[in-house]
Amino acid sequence: MSASDKKRLRKEQNATALTEKQLQARKEAKKLKTYTLTFVLAMVLVIAIVVGVVVTPLIAGVIHRNTHAVTIGNRELSTADLSYYYVDAISAFYSDFKNTYGDYAEVYAEFLDSVMPNIPLNKHPYKDEEGKTWADHFIEAAKTNAKWTFALYDEAIANGFKISEDSQKFLDNFESNMKMYATMYGYSSLDGYLRNTYGDGADLESYQRYYTYSTYASEYSSHYFDGIEFKDEDYRTHEQGDKFKEYNSYSYASYYVKSNDYLTFLKLGTVTKDDAGKESTTYSDDDKAQALAAAKKDAEAMGIADNNTVEKLNAALAALDINKDKKDDNKPTFTETEFALYSTLSSNEELQKWLSSADRKTGDVTVIESKTTDADDKETVTGYHVVLFLDVDENERKLADVRHILVKFTGGKTENGTTVYSDEEKAAAKKKAEDILSEYNNTKMTDADFEKLAKEKSEDTGTKANGGLIEGINRDSAYVESFLNWSIAEHKPGDVEIIESEYGYHIMYYKGDQELSYRDSMIDAVMTQEAYEKWETGLTEKIKDVDVNLSGIDTKYTIAG
Question: Are 399 and 510 in contact, with CB atoms under 8 Å apart?
């Protein structure tokens, strides 16, 4: 895969489901680098969220610039130097927490809840770290980021790497650019802006040095990542054995029979009233066991071999005593999950194992326990999943490139929070789309002709500028159903058709297939991440850090809510 294809693929994969290995790789990368350096490079656009200790600025500044705080490899960092990494680690953490996933979500939420009242970082214990505070954590993050930055900067220079033209122009005019940002945020001087953001030791010379290192490191990181390439035989070797199924997609229908629903349906429990007359219900272990047994009985009644279609299962579900009195518009139904990746189907390992079994065939049905685990690792069965296997896809379909021209619906009225368009309004949009298609049909009907029309006529602001082009589409891409279904259907380059979506009418143009299949694009992502991390670790693990005097780092920083 070429570097340009790698860049394009990486962009498209942001809208694609990830395998468990990809998710884990991202988590490990986050642990290694802690916070993205992309944010560091954008810090000039961010108002500081950190409030420092009040000390006479000039005196403190001289001290911070001349105090040897830490040695990173062969570089001696002053308190001022380390503070850039320290403050940006805190700021990046604060800005990024809402987008955090997995293991970090709970930690982030707990941390922000506790610091909103402006608790100093050195007064708040870091989660699961004995005797460690959040200030300690951010100092470690600062040193980790510094090691990463110097390792990649040195590698970039050694290999004659040149940063982008825009970045070089920014560095060439660094002082004037920084003064512009300082003025933008209401500061009368650049030094005042830097000191308020990074502490009293910050000044133009040291910050420009920090920014230069960070720019080279970040861009060289992307350059190396985008340059990693594999051959077809590498993909085939990677997926051998049990790994093969990790890149399949599975289609199934399921319904969760929840035991708690039977507590109410069977009228179990003991009702009591408090002094104010408010009723509450408590359930004994026997009540819970009875409800669970009833849930299991109903699940097993549905999960018989004869119920081998979604229609049959929905009929069996509606016929259960617990659902008989429910109105048609309120009766539960099986949920069809289409082409969910094996590794992200569910945390239920039994479900994954059943769906991915080599002898699984369409129409197979089973009942699988749903369990929760408490803090003491005690498992409790809470209900049963009735699951119908529909299909498996090995994702050999090539990634698709399409263009489109959107003609939006106009007018409409709001009903229950949704905009509804009349038949006349839809007809007007369709007529406009048909006219544009006629205009295209009067050209030579080339890709360039469609691109030109899309730039002129499309009402999709996201793709208009590049001629309506959307690349690397696969069955898990995050597009509206009609758009996605057309894009992944079998087409020849140049096929054109008008389709309707919730946004309006799309004049679709099939540009062609990419070289990679969806399967190989997923494998490539995993292998690239593994290769990159091996390279990155090889560089960073060589660099050692030695604390000298960290007393000048302001561990009393608070994050202002």
Answer: no
pLDDT profile of the chain (561 residues), mean per 10? 48 38 38 35 38 54 92 96 94 66 53 60 76 90 96 98 97 96 91 91 95 97 96 96 91 96 95 89 95 98 96 96 89 88 72 91 96 86 96 95 97 90 96 98 98 97 96 93 96 98 97 96 94 96 96 83 50
Q: With respect to residue 505, please indicate whether it lies within any of the assigned structural domains.
A: yes
Do 509 and 468 meet the contact criterion of CB atoms below 8 Å apart? yes
Q: Which tokens sit at 499?
A: 């389709």
DSSP label at 415?
E
Complete edge-to-edge strand list for the sheet that includes strand 249-258: 335-341, 249-258, 379-393, 365-373
Burial tier of 490 (Cβ tally within 10 Å: 0-12, 13-18, 19+): exposed
* pLDDT given for residue 209 in this prediction: 97
Q: Do residues 404 and 386 share a domain?
A: no
Three-state SS string over 36-54 comes to: CHHHHHCHHHCCCCEECCC
Please tell me the distance from the alpha carbon of residue 360 to that of residue 339, in angstroms, as a whole number: 15
What is the C-alpha to C-alpha distance for residues 54 and 419, in angstroms, rounded to an integer?
54
Q: Which amino acid is at 210?
A: Y
- Name the residue with tokens 């090539």: 398
Q: Residue 383 has which token pair? A: 């209900």
Pairing of strands 379-393, 279-282: unpaired
CA distance 72 to 95: 27
The reply to whether 346 and 216 lie within a common domain is no
Identify whether 238 is part of a domain.
Answer: no
Give the integer Cα–Cα distance in Å for 44 and 138: 20
pLDDT recorded at residue 560: 58
- Are 177 and 39 contained in the same domain? yes
Q: Is 19 a member of any domain?
A: no
Distances (CA, A) of 380 to 139, 264, 346, 372, 375: 41, 19, 17, 5, 12
**Residue 502, SS3?**
coil
Amino acid identity, residue 201?
Answer: G
The last residue of a domain, from among 227, 259, 283: 227
pLDDT on residue 112? 58
Number of neighbouring beta carbons within 10 Å of residue 138: 24
Confidence (pLDDT) at 417 = 84
Res 147: pLDDT: 97
433-457 exposure pattern, b = at least 16 Cβ within 10 A, e = fewer: beebbeebeeeeeebebbbebbeeb
What range does the domain containing 432 cover? Answer: 398-518
| Total domain count, the chain | 3
